Amino acid sequence: MKKKIIIANWKLNSNIKNISIFLKNLQLNISSYLKYNTVIIAPPTIYLERIYKKINNLNIFLGAQDVDIHKQGAFTGETSILMLKDIGVKYVIVGHSERRLFHNENNKLIAKKFGLIKNSYLIPILCIGESEDEKRNNKTEEIIKNQLDIIFEFFGEKAFVNSIIAYEPIWAIGTGLSADPEYVESIHQFIKDYINQYSSNNLEEIIIQYGGSINAKNAKSFLEKSSIDGLLVGSASLDCKEFLEIIKVSNEILCK
Ligand code: 13P
What would be the CATH architecture of the domain defined by 4-255? Predict the structure, then answer.
């Protein structure tokens, strides 16, 4: 059975005190839930190493929230893929809608970052999804096609092997209004079919997550869907109890 992947994206949140409380709780409670789940924590860059030291022996993986396109040099304030790899990062989120919106990242830049992550043998978590306006104007499929096409253009038919796609409709992020699981299922199927047209890879190998206002109460309705391979959790992942509850729900579904 395919493991579900549960990812915590802490965005620009938390501090040393809260991280310490979170990790203590995680250490005490996580082990029984890891059989059917892969768990990834993506904290702010400054806390990556501190967290790696505590989660490495728990079989939980470290994720970064972004990476620069340069490997080294005079690029003040940036973090390179070599540095992320050096401190134990395995997964890197790329193209999150908050980076697209607040840092003007476009599909081309995101494709470059995606390639850099893959060429460094780390696993990209590519975020895609439509805005509220785009959904209202029936542009969801067109937007998703554009976001995927550029990746195929750059990296060919094997682009999505050893990668994760996170479908995160922008209107569902941080709004408390998660998408309808049936709607997400239909979009995931659309993504799989679209990728299938370009690539001869086994569809089973394509991993597609959902993200957007996930919490311990609604996680089950998403994780029950076979086309939803896991969740990218924002604010609910800051509270260890709630995050553990989401992992537990996933475990229970897969244990059945
Ligand atoms: P929320 O779960 O806070 O809506 O955030 C989702 C998200 O953007 C995860 O990357």
Answer: Alpha-Beta Barrel (3.20)
